[in-house]
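Continued from yesterday's entry.
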Amino acid sequence: MYALALHGGAGTIARATLTPALEADYRAALRASLLIGTDLLAQGAPALDAVEATVRALEDCPLFNAGRGAVFTHDGHHEMDAALMDGASGRAGAVAGVREVQNPIRAARLVMEQTEHVLLAYPGADQLAREHGLPMQPVDYFFTQQRYDQLQEAIAAGRMQLDHAASPADPNWKKGTVGAVARDVRGHLAAATSTGGMTNKRYSRIGDTPIIGAGTWADARCAISCTGHGEYFIRAVVGYDVACLMEYKGLTLAEACRVVVHDKLAPVGGEGGLIAVDAAGNLALPFNSEGMYRASRNAAGEELVEIYGG
């Protein structure tokens, strides 16, 4: 019994702000990425391979704030973060601030499998990727006009714009962090997350995505990938907290996710959500924001592709 869920960011996503054509584009991108991962699982591939492939597809899609669609920093470049974790072995790898790696999630796996470390930052992470032959791209590859326009707006307003916040000029511009979680046919779990971070960010800010236990977590009990206001997710150690509630309080996956997302994060302003899967293949996709780009599928053929809340 395999299962996979993915997200493409959570935030202010109102029905009135997406044109029918744009909504169709997002739904198609979510489903295409979903099928890449679930097709691998159906063939017996490990959960780790499935979540990496799913996130790579989302990184390659300019609609989302990861990889090719990453937002701009204050200095006009891209600083991308990614992480993945194998629940069966407890091994994890992550990168922060990479600038040239086409698929940051591949660099994160490289850290896990080819080094003794867990987290590498720019420029070393880019150097490692280059030395191991990962595809590298020039700055122009990551450029999208929408993201550049967002940067100019944020600079003019004198603010650092969270990737999940709506823009007065363009309420559609939130297309945040991407991630995937999976259970394979052997019952093993894995999680992967990737992001371009915040528009107009400075001082090499790093959010929760590459922080194991905060934005990304997997063990024998559950796998978690988060999206939202990273600082809150770091302070709440969200991914690990879900696992702890299951282990120490005996909560189900759905109960643990509800407590963390709605009872702990929401009251203190931690807007966002997460996707999760447990050892039995149960899925949870809670969020406390207006919407979350999300999709899921299991071996029974039960499929979800959704954007809005309610």
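--- second protein ---
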Amino acid sequence: MSPASRYTYLGPEGTFTEAALRTLPEAATRELVPMVSVPAALDAVRNGEAAAALVPIENSVEGGVTATLDELATGAPLAIYREVLLPIAFALLVRPGTKLADVKTVTGHPVAQPQVRKWLAAKLPDAVWESAASNADGARLVQEGRFDGAFAGEFAAATYGLDPLVTAIHDAANAQTRFVLVGRPARPAAPTGADKTSAVFWLGDDHPGALLELLQEFAVRGVNLVRIESRPTGEGIGQYCFSIDAEGHITDRRVGEALMGLKRICPKVRFLGSYPRADEVPPKLRRGTTDAEFTQAADWLSRALDGRG
């Protein structure tokens, strides 16, 4: 297939990322290519080798996936086209014939460890954990005999010839991971009424209330932030950028004006896209924040400037 029909994802085969990607209807007609890391998956998009990449960005237990946040904030610009929410539960995958008492070493993605820590302490308190590049890669390492068990999706067992010794492992009920489909910058899809807008911004200078000033650009316009995280810029201790997800679409007056407010006072703002919310939950708008009320206020100002009262 041509690059236009190719999607990359955090591999190898059998990851939760692949499972999330396969929930998209268009995945059935795309060539799905596993990559060794989040940067590799996104670089394939930047280099024109793939149309889009699906990567994890947030976990309900562990928080933001720093590799994805940093890649979206640096390098050639990319855009988020859509998001996927996937319920997460782990299975302990072992080689056939392995019993729980035989498991002395375990592996999995670093984000998996906080989600199974209590189970490990209760069931395998003496097992030694070592992180793998992905949960599926951990399964591959078990297949090769380098570890006794891997925490991965139960669906990965068949791919690597392993048995799911224990299933439905999770310390937090209803755990989810959020994934984003990322492509090259393009005009955002039309608003649906239940959208998110993502951006990264940098502080101009560090002074008391600097972050508050930026957040007020959203607050005074009634824009709810559903996620905000700071990430070091690499330029020295205390130098940070901020990654945010806001309710609404850039074409919504309240959201567009908030982003313009950021641009006026920040040295750099990177727009990452407006896209449909996976949960389809519309925002609850306060009085004075609808597009109609913004238009009415603009009309009032025009009449005042024209001397029409």
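Helices lie at 16-21, 38-46, 66-73, 113-123, 135-143, 210-219, 253-265, 291-305. The first helix runs from residue 16 to 21. Will compare against the first tomorrow.
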